[in-house]
Amino acid sequence: MIDNPFVPLASDAVRSAATEITRPHDPRVHWSRIAALLGAVEDRQLYQEWGHRSLRAYAEQELDLAPSDSHELLRLYRIVQTAGRPLEDWAKISKGKARVISRALHLGGDPATWLDQALSSATEDALRTILLRQTGADVFVPFTVFMPDSLLPLVLEALRRALPIAVDEELPEDPAAQDVLVQRRDTGFRCLEVVCAAFLT
């Protein structure tokens, strides 16, 4: 069980603290602090005492939090609880990293292990790459090539000619629309794969 600073507070003190840290919205207030607050309100059902039918209703009406935001924060708080680690550890990671941890747990990961991964990963993208590699998914990496502007039409034409082989869908006749396809993340790399394979075989 984590040491939630809002749990021992009196009802009025919790309500006052909630208003203080969420209105106006201050980006310097860490997500874990708001999540702990909502967790305390939910677990003690203080929203009923304050005249609201649910935590989401309370958060929307008094804290100006969208239902999707309060739902996500409460979900992340439950992860914090299951990890059995101090709230201060979670205050060291971004909400983006916490979302990656949530995904890892959905796939059967251990919360404390993934918290350690998050703390040691430099960025959210680095943590997501670790997850993708463990699940066997493709990991996309940036690849930049500098070339003369005059060469771009030739490259695009080669990628466009690869579209019928690379993409299993009806292709637009408009070259501009085809250019969109060859530069789209989910189709462009397949066109490049076809072009490279043709050269190597």
Summary, kept brief:
The chain contains twelve helices and no strands.
Provide an overview of this structure:
The chain is an all-alpha fold and 201 residues long. The chain folds into 3 domains: 1-92, no CATH class; 94-141, no CATH class; 149-200, no CATH class. Helices cover 66% and strands 0% of the residues. The chain is built from 12 helices and no strands. Helix 10 (152-166) packs across helix 12. It is elongated.
Present the secondary structure layout.
Layout: H1 11-22, H2 31-44, H3 46-49, H4 55-62, H5 67-83, H6 87-90, H7 95-106, H8 111-120, H9 124-135, H10 152-166, H11 175-182, H12 185-200
Helix pairs in contact: 1-2, 2-5, 7-8, 7-9, 10-11, 10-12
Beta-strand segment tally: 0
Morphology: elongated
The oligomerization state is single chain
SS strand fraction: under 5%
**Can you give the mean pLDDT?**
89
Could you give the order of the helices and strands? HHHHHHHHHHHH
Cα separation of the termini: 60 Å
C-alpha Rg (nearest Å) = 24 Å
Q: Count of helical segments?
A: 12
How would you sum up the major sheet? none
Low-confidence stretches: none
